[in-house]
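I would like you to sit down with the record closing this message with an eye to the fold:
=====
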Amino acid sequence: MLRLIWKNAWRSRRRTVLTVLSVAMSLFLLSTMMCYVSSGEIGLNRAGGSLRLVTRHATSLTFFLPESYGDRLRAVPHVTQVQGCVWFGGMVEGREDLFSSNIACDLESIDTMWDEYRFEPRAMEKLRGEMRGALVAKRLLNRMREEVGWEIGKTVTLTSPIFKMPLEFVLLGTIEGPDESILLFRRDYLEKARGQPGEVGYYWVRVDSAEHLSPVSEAIDRMFSNSEFETKTETEKAFLAGFMSMMGNVNQLVMNIGFAVVLTILMVAANTMGMTARERTTEHAVMRCLGFGRARIATLFLSESVLIALIGGVLGVGAATALYRPGRYDLMGMAPDFYMTPLTIAIGLGVALTVGFLAGVVPAVSASRRSIVDGLRRVD
């Protein structure tokens, strides 16, 4: 039966090849979109195990907090470390496509607050001795080297659309960690350049254990309630999810496009199998005369539809798996997470099987139910 199914599938080679390519291209696109969604989920799940909280202005992330809040945060029970940060949002002049997470941080706690990052030897020592110094993610440095010629020791300029000003940075060393697009520099340098000292964009707060995350969060917001600068404190996972939501409901948009892609390949495959069924009306009648039962006819035809869709699925998902490997692409700082997970591969192949089944089930049932007389009456 397998040999017969295979030969039937390739009887019209041009039609089969075009159908397979349509399914493969569609599932490659679908896999790409699922990679984007899963990469964000991986990053959020990793942040879910963090002992860090984020304290920001209760109104919006765009409002600043007083620098004096840092000492008050350090006095909260179970708080072990506090770091003030400002999102600079600088870009290379004329190259808005070269995204990087450039953040101004309190110097004394950069390397200890972010213990999951590996700092190049003596990088922190160099940063303490250079006001304009910056530490850059190794993958970002490699990308910028190819695009605009960045090198360690070189002075580069980033222009911030937030502060409407450019800043020069001396690249002193590299960082390796979850965010492969990060660039860290000294907050006091940004303060001096702006001429507005004493303002912090948000605070990272590390606590001593996971069970104290919620009590410390509530204590911080209670401490600053009814003040001129009220705060909102949330876990790192909640903060990152909120930050990503500023770009809109991208996940929902991606899933809607994915649904449209699946619907399209379903219609393509259904049209192919419908044409195939009409061409084989007489052949099916002859097979019935030779002893093939209705169930056998339906099974043969449905298996052929599933086989064609599965071939396309293997090609499309396989190409995405080969192309999207861990750490290969830098997509909004998600380079280590933008890859085909086993679940994504399984979903892609599952979609291919489902499309093959749905595309072939109606023609298969119709072919099996057609009477022998009606089938033999038709002459192609």
